[in-house]
């Protein structure tokens, strides 16, 4: 065994409390190097009477490593533990003190989980596990009230640019709630709705006022109430990293410079404020002068923004916040933000925009979730062409699953595209079969899925601003077959809790073969998903000993032959099977 590859630390995503009775332990070994692992456990104050062994299960792999996991229920809430790795006739023990050829006497030098404190546990809202989000840009969804259209307003359906407007508003969303409900989603994520000079509204002017082009605060209240009456949650977008250059307090700094009482609200490097060679003399989002960056470490700034976060939860009863450019704001701010938001609504869902490994925001003291762009990147890379094999794809997904604890994976915000990326249909070369493979994976995978408005009826679009096209409401121009497919898969996910909270594992993902099989499993149901990511018709085979499988979409009984399930798949086809346990 290659001992240099052994890895475990008694914290973070390697040792964590899954619930108030259960600790999950993970350990890493070299790929295909270790045959089995036992977790050796006991209470440090009474090792002999509490001693127990737990076989570990290989739950994921990547290109270089295998990842093993055990679920342990300590009798007294605390745990000392080590690992025994076995390969052939060789056995070694790993404890916090090192790697040993003979078992060291416990519990001294063993790993230690001192106690399961429920108050310290990561805990996301339970409803987020069952949520299926629908992302809407209010300006591009529907024009329900022409009286608030900006001047100029271009005809609906024109080519989007960085600064044109088409008149979409909150009333337009209210008018189409039947459509949203019929699709089957049960949560809406709205990009910013607060007063702003731009069409995208990510440069806020007034944080407690709905943009007049969208309606009023009362209109937003009507929308949220109407959604709640239909069982639909509403999450708003908060831009706390930066504001508009027209934000009154920033304008005070423009006028009065370092003498302004708001000078320390921003990160100013040099006065007077200026832009030289495209670089502002104050920090901004990117290098955009019209988006000055807040100094969120300033207590007055912090209190101002925390009041905003609390205001919309209490006044409008929103169900959560999506946090723009969340990774560029200090952790102290986000810890206080969570306290304020959860005090106002313990069930609020907090989603940060972080594009990379986000573990340090997901320790239970800041966010419930992040936008999982690494997920979308790997899924689109695999299903947009057939060059990547299943082995490489499974390695990528295994690596991502091991980034976070299980309860985080259960509510991580998975998406295929958004207002910041090209649309899924464009990413896959406008091949609808490949879109379907992406959507099947999204809606049968672990996490909280989000669908970008219009994807379900075939909207295309390249990078921003092209991905922000107007919603198509002419049914003759909508892809109704694709819409029905989305509805079918959304309904499937809602009907079976195993697709929302069951374990995930690849059953077949071989080198040189783009075809894959994976499973979702819990205590009473077993789903298997078969995918042919090739342009050729194929038969995909895998051992399946029981004969009680059914097609989840057709209800047809599917029986293996001599313990082998042989599934015929169309080019770029899929099939979903299930059985009750």
TrEMBL record:
Q: Which domain of life is it from?
A: Bacteria
Q: Which GO terms describe its molecular function?
A: hydrolase activity, hydrolyzing O-glycosyl compounds
Q: Which UniProt keywords apply?
A: Glycosidase, Hydrolase
SMART domains assigned to the protein according to its UniProt record, in alphabetical order = Aamy
Q: What GO biological process terms are annotated to this protein in UniProt?
A: carbohydrate metabolic process
Q: Where is the Glycosyl hydrolase family 13 catalytic domain?
A: 135-493
The record's section on Pfam families has: Alpha-amylase, Alpha-amylase_N, Malt_amylase_C
Q: Which InterPro entries match?
A: GH, GH13_cat_dom, Glyco_hydro_13_lg-like_dom, Glyco_hydro_b, Ig-like_fold, Malt_amylase-like_C, O16G_dom_2
Sequence segments annotated as region (Disordered): 143-164
- Which PANTHER family does this UniProt record tie to the protein? ALPHA-AMYLASE FAMILY MEMBER, MALTODEXTRIN GLUCOSIDASE
Give the family this protein belongs to, as stated in its UniProt record. Belongs to the glycosyl hydrolase 13 family.
What's the protein called, per UniProt? Alpha-glycosidase
Give the originating organism.
Paenibacillus elgii
